Amino acid sequence: MLETHTLSGPSLAQLANLYVDSIKVGKMGSGKSLELFPTILTALAACEALSYGKGELSGEEYKKQLINSLCSSRWDPQCVIHLTTMFRDVPLSSDELKFLVEKTLRMFTKLDLQEIPPLVYQLLLLSAKGSKKQVLDGIISYFKEQDVRQEEEQNCGEDMDLEVQSIPQDQLRHVEGTVILHIVFAIRLDHELGREFLKSFKTSYADMCPFSVALLLSVARIQRYEEQVFDLLKGAVIKSYKDEHLQQGSKFLQDLLPRHCSVAHMILDTVKNSVFGWDHVTQGLVQLGFFLMDTFGPKPGPFGKTTEGPVGTTRTPTQQACKLGGQVLLYGFKIHEPIRGEILEQVLNRLVTKTASPVSHYLDLFSDIVVSAPMILLESSSKVIETFDHLSCLPLATVQGLLKAVQPLLKVSISLKDALILVLRKAMFSSQLDGRKSAVAGFLLLLKNFKVLGSLASSQCSQAVSSSQVQVDVHSRYNSAANEAFCLEILSSLRRCLGQQADVRLMLYEGFYDVLRRNSQLASSIMQTLLSHLTRYYEPEQDLLPPVKLEPCITAHGDQVYLQEPLAHLVSCTVQCLLWLQNTQQSANHSADDSDDDEEEGEGYQSHLQTMLESVTRRMVKSELEDFELDKSAEFSMGSSVGVKNNIYAVLVMGVYEVLIEYNFIKAKYNKSHFEELIGLFNCYNKLSEILKEKSGKVRAPSHKTPRSLLSMGFASTLITVLFKDNSQSREEALSVLRSNAEFVRYALSVVVQKIQQLEESGQTDGPDGQSAEKTFRFLCDMTSVLMWRYTNIPSAVEEAGRKDKRCSLSQLCLEGLLRIFTTCQLRYPDKMAQLLSTMDVAEDEAEQEDATEMNYFYIRQFQRALFTKLSGGEEDFNSREAQLLVSILSVLSRQLNPSSKQFVQMITWTVKICKETSFEDSAFSKGMLSLLFNLHVLYKSPVGLLLELCQDIHSQLGDIDEDVEVEKQNIFAIINMKTASNAAVFVLSQVEKILDEVEWLIAQKKSQAASDKLNCGEDTQSAGQQDPVEKAVTLQLGTLVTALNELVQTSLQPGNCTITLLRVLSRTYSILATLVKYYIQVCTSQHSALPARFEKLVKLSGSHLTPQCYAFITYVQSGETAEGDEKKKKRKNDVNTAASAKLLRETKATPNLIFSIEQYEKYLITLSKKSKVNLMQYMKLSTSRDFRINATTLEAALQEQDHSQETTETQNGEGTQEPKKKKRKV
């Protein structure tokens, strides 16, 4: 080796050829002899001339020929690693290196899997010479291919019940893990390699795969790359979700492009793959999970309110990204023991420290961890106990979520339960109100879940623990006696709360019913507590009115009056518990006739309570408002302490009336005289309610909200069912008492609507069973059936005729209820919509609707018919609000239809027909119909053609900006008329912006594709003369939009919001046209292809039609402002109108922005013209000079007017002094 350079040129050439020949035939053996080859090649390069064929070559050229010959020949797979090692020591030009790397990467597929890591290692060392990107891309694409093949084989195996695996999965994953370690090690040493690696992912996430995600997470362990990697992954995740979201909402995009690869799937695949010993990836996964949850979790809104979406949905891309973070951590927790402690610690830390922002996403994650791996969590119970110490400082919602999540563990861990009880006892004496409320919440939860033996084991009492691992019999750990003692001890702690603030007492009353239902053996203790407490506010003298004492229910502090005892809730809790007990005892008595002391004791307090409630009912009916110190003319304003006190009294009394109505209805057993008494109670309630409404109407302060009804949801459902649908003869006479009272019927319906609204907003309702999702859904089904029956069977025309007041009709209330039910169901029970619709009995007359889509469409037809009937009447009888509700219901139900079904197409056809035939001058209704039309159309095909027709209609209705031009009268859509056209224009512009979003997204996709094509192959993939479908679609969409905007720009729109929006949309259109031009500049530079004819047409359309009209429109807007300004001056000279000045500022911004966009567009067109050798500027008109614009006609008219006015003043002031003239000039 040391003497090689002394050999003569021909000898070196001979030796080198010997090597090349033996490599070609695959006789290199161990590769030891190859160590000499680089030295020979270096010595060869130093030679001046060597004979080659019939001529001569320099040593350097001879070396190049040898390397080319070597790389072009077939390599024996066994020699590849030795050859790659050997080439590290050979001086290579960049082209030779590129050729060599390409050759080596192609050999990957021919090698045994175990030989890949050492070859990758050699390639990475070789990349120090250059071609870093090529090396990394090659390695990643090889493993991407292997993963795809693996997935396909698994799928085929599942489908065909065969095990066909060319490479065992575990072997592949171990090799991937080793390769990742090699690459990370190389990046640590060579930061240029790291920069190249990250650069390749910054432009597009389309090249990502599970292997590259794992590699990125491993690289994140290098401190200098950590932030970049997580930002890159965050961007990729959110962009992937946004792209998916955009494609899902548009049929146009779905047809044009294939579904995007989901980065979320890749990340979750990486988590699954990491089980094969990828310890270097797991830490990155934990960081990524928390990074996504922290970044995309719900944010605190104004005044600390959370801006979370509803619980049952994860619709927005940010919510999906947050959910992905949770999934990564949950899967990581399940499969990687080393990171469990850290995940748990970080989740609990965030629950404790993030008190200012919502933590529902962390609570969900913690709950999932408990459910999926409770036994694993018990090993870290010390961390949970540590968190308990902070309970009294945490917000109530967090405490409730945390205790609910940890509840399955309390049943199997004594230490955890004891620690919690200690903390709750301390919290009971906390100085903070929230701390005490947390204690109550915790104790109630314990009472619900630690059953005393002998409690009713009914399905309604059983506590669902969804974990299969916690199948522990509670009584094996805690015997029933201990359980009972434990529960009674807690109850005694809770009794202390009856002396605390109203909020704490309220929690207690709301929780007692659930405790009783789950733990019926505590009945005696709970009922005695409630009875003794209720007695304090009960007037025992039977002749005294009122029967309740309101004085002790309030307390004063300084000049402020506060509620001390929520009396109505106390009565409600007592009544609900009593009714439940009587109900269960009756059913128990039917099955077994046994009696013991407990039952006798129960009978005692039950009869006492019943007597009390009967007495209260009797006296409450007799009571006048004056008995409660309330009067019609009393003050109810919230500004004074007297008003506040009266308000509190009124709300308490109304609540008590409501509770008594429910109790007496159940006790009445359809007895007529009892129902008459019930109507008496309602009349008293109604009188008070009317006074409150009347008083709140006069006050200009924040509008007075109707207090939440204390009727339970189950009772509200029962009540409307008997009022509207009960046909049994035996009950008819009694029910007629209730049905004949129109106010009572309206009240029942309004309570139902209020309950559904509460369910929609918070996912639960007040009162018994309000938190049980199963029961609330059952009530929803019953209500839907009744409301639908009421709406379809009693024509609103009949009702309208008999109505004297201006309040909304019962039909409208029914519709409002139905709309809220359908919305709530989609939000809270998305999978149960078909079940909800199947409970409505309207379909009884028709054939059974078995198919969910058919059934859904059946109800859509019902509402379509109702709307059509509304529209068939005259405009003076048209009830706009009811029609809007029907449109909203149709909109909600149509979301359930499959866009590819025939029913969906029928729905679109019907909507188009209504829009074309309805000419009512109602802006709100027309906007609702157009919104429904576009929401449907966008899922069927692009609505750009519709937009053009609507713009033509708007132009036709509102007239042209040039008064001399007469617009051709056309009216495709009758829904567009003089009254509705302005609002329709604003709506149409919002739809134009959505289409511009899609077009902009498509251009961005094409640009990134063109960039990656250029990097990868640099050759034109498009066949000559054929335009790319995406480019064609973009050009057609923009062409139609330009034509539509051309119509709007000539329309005489009202100055203000509409014109500003139009200027903004025009500005955006030109920006997107400029982006498209830039894309073609990029294409022309790299591919030298001709411009498509369609694109030239688009440029012509924009230049010759739209641009001149834009300048005319700007002049029109500015002249409109001036005229408007002059009129205002005449009306009031010195009034400074801030709103007008803000509007002016918006308008002044919009105009220059539009002009700048037009000029930018023209600037890029000039560049493209030069590149493509096509004169695109021939279509552009010379723009108007704006900085000093003289309109000749206006100027001449103004000069003539001035001359005329001067002549007049001269004749008037001919004899007078000169003083007034001077003043006039000043003025």
TrEMBL record:
* InterPro entries for the chain: FANCI, FANCI_HD1, FANCI_HD2, FANCI_S1, FANCI_S2, FANCI_S3, FANCI_S4
Compositional bias, Low complexity, is annotated for: 1208-1217
Under Pfam families, the record lists:
FANCI_HD1, FANCI_HD2, FANCI_S1, FANCI_S2, FANCI_S3, FANCI_S4
Task: Give the FANCI solenoid domain ranges.
Answer: 1-187, 281-444, 710-933, 947-1196
Domain FANCI helical: from-to ranges? 192-273, 458-693
Top-level taxonomic group? Eukaryota
Gene Ontology process terms (BP): DNA repair
Return the annotated region ranges for Disordered. 1198-1227
Q: Could you tell me what this protein is called? A: FA complementation group I
